[in-house]
Amino acid sequence: MTFDFDTPLSRLGTHSVKYDLRRLKFGRDDVLPLWVADMDFAAPDCVREALAARLAHPIYGYTLTPPSTHEAIMDWQWRRHGWRVEKEWISLLPGLVPALALCVQAFSRPGEGVVVQTPVYNPLFEAVERNGRRPVRNPLLWEARGHRMDFARLEADLDPDIRLLLLCSPHNPGGRVWRREELERLGEICLRHDLVVVSDEIHADLVYPGHRHLPLAAVAPELAARTVVLNSPGKTFNIAGLNTAYAICPDPALRARLHAAASTLHLEGVNLFGPVALEAAYGGGEAWLAALLDYLRGNLDRVRDHFAAHLPHIGCPLPEATFLLWLDCRALGLDASTLRQRLIDAGLGLSPGTQFGPEGSGFMRLNFALPRTGLDAALRLLGAALR
Ligand SMILES: Cc1ncc(COP(=O)(O)O)c(C=O)c1O
């Protein structure tokens, strides 16, 4: 089977955040957008066909989520990640970011501290702040091969007022796939300090050869009893606009707290099309996903060669997962806003590192999930901007 990731598709006229918010974000409409984490590729045919088939029935009224959706999630977690999930552990939720906020409400009280490992996808700490909890930053250490957790600082900073930790696994930005030893050590600290852990695993399927994602709850039974895993087919199959995610919570007591919080908001299901797409993707999208990962890997090789040849002073460790590069531009000696503006002036729309926490100062995040012609154009512009 062949899949076409090369042909550019115009997203103009589709109200895409990545393209249509350029003026607001960058002050001009014409930057090459390499920011929001979705891909400039068509979703797999199996997904489009399943959606078209459902669309053909002209009534879009209140709809139940069928048991087959839960089964598709259970099969996927087992096949891709070796994790046996039970049906009653799963709750469908309208997006992973809302699920994070829900978990903050369910597993902490106003005023309490919640640990986030910055720099991190900003909705993790925003979910904490916007719900009146206190973000406790546990900054990651940045090394030549990527981020590392600072366990000593975590131990030192925990206090009895902290009941919850939000993990990003694999990590965004930077694309680290946390190793078993790292997750075990983190789990052991959370056990000792009686913390609940919510693990955002939305990038779990976008892992490159040589690395293996481990769902946190599959690391050890005692960890499963205090973990909620959040996931979604949104990133993997480029269907984020369908706002369909899920929580997997093995422990009945934690699950009761999650359900109670969801019920206060009447969060009792997802939109009609999300489960259709999820089942089609998880059921028939694996060949497409393998081809996607090959293509992204090819993009990464191109990026690596370009940086080695033209921008050796920019740190660019290849991500182990995700389609996001974390560029260390600190050697340029520019402050965060000058760096950002320099890229905009060059015609590029990247995410500023500071969006992910103060540790991101001097860094920029680049989304490389686009056709090669676009990537090559981006690399040429980057070469000029960061020389
Ligand atoms: C770590 C992480 N979590 C969640 C999301 C978004 O999830 P959703 O679109 O389901 O709200 C993203 C998107 O970039 C992400 O990187």
Overview of the molecule:
It is a single chain. It is globular, with a radius of gyration of 21 Å. The mean pLDDT is 97. It has two domains: 129 residues, Aspartate Aminotransferase, domain 1, CATH 3.90.1150.10; 223 residues, Type I PLP-dependent aspartate aminotransferase-like (Major domain) (Aspartate Aminotransferase, domain 2). Helix content is 40%, strand content 14%. The strands form four sheets. Strands 2-10-9-8-7-3-4 form a seven-stranded mixed beta sheet, with helices on both faces. Strands 11-14-13 form a three-stranded antiparallel beta sheet. The protein has 14 helices and 14 strands. The two termini are 41 Å apart. Helix 6 links the parallel strand 3 and strand 4. It has 387 residues and is an alpha/beta fold. The site of pyridoxal-5'-phosphate has 13 residues, from helix 5.
